[in-house]
Amino acid sequence: MMIPRKAYPAATIRECEAPLLVAQEFDDQLMLEAAAAVAHVAEAMLQGTDKRVLLVVGTGGNGGDALYAGQMLIENGADVTAVIPGTPHTRALEQFTGEVFRYPDDLDPEFDLLIDGVAGLGAGRPLAPEVYELFLRCDCPVLAVDVPSGVNADTGEAADACVTADITVTFGGLRLAHALAPECGTVFVADIGETIDDEDTLGEYLEYSGEEELETFLAVNPHPELQGVPALPPMPHTMVQRFEPQIHDNKYTNGVLAILAGSAQYPGAGILCTGAALNTHSGLTYYVGAGEPILRHYPEVVVRESVDKLKKVDAAVIGPGRGECAEELAQVLALDVPVVVDADALTALGSSDLLKQAVRKRTATTILTPHEGEFARLSDATGTAAERARALAEDLRCTVVLKGRITAVAEWSDGDVFVATVNAGCSWGAVPGSGDVLAGIIGASLAAVHAQYPGAPRELFTPLGPVCLHALAAYLSARTPAGPAPTRASKIVDAISLAIALQLQG
Fold first, then answer.
1. Residue 347, marked binder
2. Among residues 155, 124, 176, 241, which one has the least CA distance to residue 12?
3. Was 124 annotated as part of a binding site?
4. 368 near 395, Cβ under 8 Å?
5. What is the pTM of this model?
6. 435 among the known binding-site residues?
7. How far apart are CA 301 and CA 420, in angstroms?
8. In the chain, what are the domains?
9. How far is 506 from 501, CA to CA, in rounded Å?
10. Digit-coded pLDDT (tens) for 428-481
């Protein structure tokens, strides 16, 4: 079972904090709990360093969190400096014993960790130029308190002058920005309020509110030094799919996938998509088209000249590197099986009202996998990635996977749309051909589910698991014994098997 975290509007967070603030037994009790969580994560990030920390402190509660956390770090042996351009939280400043600078220009930017306590939940305004320049000058990891400064807590919209965090520590539950803004990095959630009310913490108040707006998943936690810190839960394997063939299984019962990808101009797209599918499931894979390049790489594949030459299939992928494929897309959409529409097939779909209507009329699952440029050819919807994915899913009555570091997934089913996001946790998937790999992973997963659960409802054909599998494979493909290094799409294909095994381990 996949376990998401819920993301809430800023107003809901404030509403749920209010009773805890009223019930405090002494000033800043809740703030001190938050600061302890920040200090705990900071300590883990400082392992193996000289523990030189810079706090950038704003005028609100986030600045107080940062100052209190900084003092806790000092008491644990860290060398902590604060830049405070405005008027900070008075009591926190009184407790802070580190060196304080008013102007960032006075600083030597050599630090091991920068803690962003400038704005957080309350503001998405751009940083002041001198403060933004300081963040650019400091070549070290960044830990943001609550929400990175310059990122709108409700929309995830990032100002040009904003903080891009490696890690964000937030409290009680996620803000919407954490599900939408890659600038948040990896988000860790610390519940607070236990010293005030051991029964009703901030997290429990948020659960009671019932006002979550969005669900989100973390595909990869790229910070092994922080594995023991409460965080977004990692994704397990796809919800219902079993990867190991059972005692009576064969190449047909494990799912038959048809792939229409690649062309004379772009043969690599077909090779990548097919390789990804083969490494994701144990069923039969058909390649439709001129199959010589594919067979040289993967002799397991069965080649068919055209769609009408296919025998029974459980799912199809069309589009990666295919070129003009409107006629093939119409044929594939007429099949009563789940279909993944990617790349050139999305271009064909965007320019044809007839094809769009064919998608709307389908009873089987249709999954569109656009990046931002392809999405613009399909829809003029505005708003956050989640809102735009929802709008297109509602329009075409399909599932939309709007790809990015944070991928928005909108799944239409009988008039309702479920929306979630997946934070890849890393950007190693941002390489040429990576989308072709994702299309193959999704297609193979759909074929396996369709074969194992004939007549299953649309909800079982979710792409959330495959999106997370792709992100984990990308992360693993960049690992070397000496640390991360540049990767490529074919290495992502090779890493899929290990990614599946790790997911199955939980």
1. no
2. 176
3. no
4. no
5. 0.91
6. yes
7. 34
8. 5-226 (3.40.50.10260), 257-467 (3.40.1190.20)
9. 9
10. 999 999 999 999 999 999 999 999 888 777 778 899 999 999 999 999 999 999
